[in-house]
Amino acid sequence: MFFCFCAILIAQEKKPYKVNFENQSELNHFDHNKTSTITLSDKHYKLGKSSLRWDFKEDSYIKTSFLDILTEEESPLAYGDYFPNSPTTIFSIYNEDIQEGTLRFSFYSDANDDEIWFEIPLNFTGWRTIWVPFYEMNGHTPKRNTPVNFKTFKISTVNIKKPGTVFIDDLVFSQYQDDRYAYPDFSVPFLKQDFAPEQDHWMPSIAYYNYIENSKAKDVSIATKKEIDIILQRLNSRFIDTLKLKNTVHEATEIYSKLNLNVDQTVKGRPLTFRYDETYYNKPPKYDEDFMEVHRFGAILKQLADLYLQGDEKSKSVISSNFIMATQYFLDQGWQAGASGGTRHHIGYSMEDLAKAFFIMRAPLQQAGLLDEVGKSMQWVFNLGKILAPEDDFVANIDYFNTQSFYHLMIIFMRTDINKIALLLNAYSKYMSITLAQDNEQGVFKKDGTSWHHGGHYPAYGMGAFKNLPKVFRTLSNTQFKISMVGHQNFKKAILTTVLYSNKFDYGFANAGRHPLEDNTIEPLKSQFLDMAYSGNPDYTSKIDREFASAYLRLWGDQDKETAAVLKNEYNIKPETLPGYHVLPYASTAIHRRKDWAAIIKGYSKYVWASEIYIASNRYGRYPANGTIQLLSEKGEYGSGFNQLGWDWNRYPGATIIHLPLKELESDLSLLMFKSNQTFAGAVKQDNNGVFSMILDESSGSNSDGKRGSYSFPGKLKARKSVFSFGNKLICIGTNISSIDNEHSVETTLFQNYLNEDISKNIFSSKIGAINKLGFNQSINSDTKDSWYIDAYQNIYHLISDNQVHIKLDHQHSYHNKYSINTGKMNTKGKGVKETEGNYAVAWIDHGVAPTSSSYRYVIYPFSDENMIEKVKTGRFKDSSFQVIQADSLAHVVYDKALHTYGYSFFQNSTSLNVPYIKAVSNPSLIMLHETGGKSIQLSVVDPNLNFYDDSGKATPGFGHPISIEVTLQGIWKLQESDSKTNLTVNKNTTTLTFSVQDGTTYNFKLTR
Question: What gap in Å lies between CA 265 and CA 259, rounded to an integer?
Answer without folding.
Answer: 17
